[in-house]
Request: fold
Amino acid sequence: MKQKPELLSPAGSFSSLIAAIEAGADAVYFGLKEFNMRARAKNFKISDLPRIKRLTSQKKIKKYLTLNTIVYDNELKSLEKLIKKAKPFVDAIICSDIAVMLLCKKYKIPFHVSTQCSVSNKETAGFYKKLGAERIVLARELNLKQIKEISKIIPIEIFIHGAMCISVSGRCLTSQFLFNESANRGKCLQPCRRKYNVEDSGGNKLNLENNYILSPKDLCTLPFIEKLKRANVKAFKIEGRNREPEYVYTVTKVYRQALDKKLTKKQITELTKELEKVYNKGFSEGFYNKLPTSDDFSRIEHSSATHSKTFLGKIMHYYPKIKVGLLHINSGKIKQGDEVYITGKTTGLIEHKILEMQINHKEVKYAKKGQDVGIKMPFARKGDDVYKIISK
Reply:
């Protein structure tokens, strides 16, 4: 029986890591404070690696460390020390700089070639295979036919959901030129997400139907996931190490269902609505079925998610016997029937609808800023953050 593709989820924090595990990820990828393409994510410290290994080992989840930026000469020594320290705690390293690949070979650590290398053909795939690569994360600009051909050479990984970049496989220089913050060092400020007007040297302006001419919609492969399942792909990857735990949980859970069984059209429609609840800039098929058109560019600067969240407060205490969390409300208000996220670096993510509330042992229908309110909830820990879910 053909093996199911590995479902690979992003982890930019412990909350997101646990959310990915609980949602059914087969593997997670994450970065440390150095040498990773999401320098603005929370990321992890070297000292966090033993805990990451403990959390993932319980469910036999693989761990991939991203060391995928370009590397300079003065960083080689610290890079080597980092790789030596990380070796006992990871299953593979995702990288793009050949210096990292050579160090992985030196210390016998499996490595995966990052999408930053823009591998787009069998010859290049063969080169990295000879170099010792265990897997290649293909360029995002390939169609299904091209993917199938390259998969004959080496195990491959493709993106199935998340942000797309206007530049070839993310190798963009715009942020560097405008703000001296290099995308290739993980510090992209995403100037592509902004509005742009076209103006010639004479000052004549061109009115555009869509000002976001550099901002692609997010990739969403759910409607044609069965095609991808037949494409001989080793791993399906979800983009989003800068995203919140609810994004990681929702997207991972949706694609877990899609990988485990063939969905009906009705189920795809329902699950697409679930994906629309969390961060997105509209959805696109990317390059998989055809070349993108003007319809594949976003029309907004930020998220078009149908749900958002606002911070309420922190859990002061949790009483496990009666399943009640004591919430101190720092801002806003809540009422019976509201839905909330409970998040924490040990709890991960819990989505809960409030049905019972008490203040001073008396039932109440709502509570506001400054009050301590007891809420019936399945689980929480002291210090967990609570967010109110808002439907737009």
